[in-house]
Amino acid sequence: MNGSRLRLGFLAAAAGMLLGLLLPLSAEAAPLLPARPLPLVLTIAAALLFALAAGLRGAGGVAPGLAGVLCGAAATLALLRDPGIAGSAAAGFWLMVAAVWLAAALCVMRLAAIRSRSLSARRLLDLAVPLLFGAVVFYLWEVLVRGFGVPPVLLPSPSAAAARFAASLPILWQDFVQTFIRGVLIGYVIGCGAGLLVAIVANRFAFLGRGLLPLGNFFSALPLVGVAPIMVMWFGFDWPSKAAVVVLVTFFPMLVNALAGLAAAGHVERDLMRSYGADYRQTLTKLYLPAALPFIFNALKINATLALIGAIVAEFFGTPTLGIGFRISTEAGRMAIDMVWAEIALAAIAGMAFYGLVALAERATTFWHPSYRT
Fold it and tell me: Are 235 and 241 in contact (CB under 8 A)?
């Protein structure tokens, strides 16, 4: 986005905040913004900061723009504390929300366009942009749900889900241990390890590879909701049946990717190892496995999400009175949707953290790969 459009956008955001001083905030009889001291101060501060951001060039306008976004968001959230506005917000309130969204979008786009030569600055920007984008999404979720008065049974606000999350930490921890520590991690290690070992054997004996790949495609297409009840009948209602489902969903992605990776070594490299008189074990450890590492980590990252999904789905078909899937099912039946969202947040946090750890391990192990060198 060029500088003139950026300045025009910040000026429009400032105008939107100032118009909120004049327009009605609620469809019901409610005081206007000038009669509310704290929201008034925050609104004026946001408008001034947006105007300052419009007057600065380049990245200099990002800091006052973000400060204005914080002030504007605080003003609208403070207004939602009034029961006369929550559920019946009018044009003045929604104009302020639109101004905050516009300024936040401009800041995100400006930050994303910055190209820094400093490695630390690039990493900071790579972290700041998605965090800011996510914060804006949660803000819009909060004000839309509370401003329109959406029933909590349909969609609770993020603040309600966060409050339930904080109040239910002991239960969430028990569910995390049951689902993730026992079901996901154990099944993930067994499934990925078995898939890699079978791929090594299939690479050594070509007929196994030709026979296993069609089977891998077949089992990968099996519906999880059909396999999970069978695993529960075979291994019982506790975590072993969930781990068995995870083994099944992670084994074949690892097998297929590892086979492709082991075959990725070029003919020149293999001829070189033969000229050195290397046996298969030496060729495997010095050539095949290093060449297959990007493929193996690709399977590990895919399986990091598949494992959690498989364990949660399996818990819908029989489990003790613990687990993320069990809690989602029971609390949804009781219409406790805020607890359902707390469990969803727990699963999302666990899945992102697990994926991030695998990605960090990949970066530390395959730093030599061209995709990282460039």
Answer: yes
147, 97 Cβ separation under 8 angstroms: yes
Q: 99: which residues sit within 8 A by CB, 6+ positions away?
A: 12, 13, 14, 15, 16, 17, 20, 46, 50, 72
Q: What is the pTM of this model?
A: 0.80
231 and 268 housed in the same domain: yes
By the 8 A CB rule, do 89 and 25 touch? yes
The per-residue pLDDT for range 231-273, each reduced to its tens digit, is: 777 887 787 888 888 988 888 889 888 888 877 776 666 666 6
Residue 216 structural domain: 166-373
118 plus 237 within the same structural domain = no
- 143 within domain boundaries: yes
Query: Alpha-carbon dihedral of residues 336, 138, 44, 108, nearest 10 degrees?
Result: 180
- Among the candidates 115, 150, 185, a domain finishes at 150
Q: What tokens appear for 369 in the block?
A: 């790969």
Closest CA to 239 of 320, 316, 310: 320
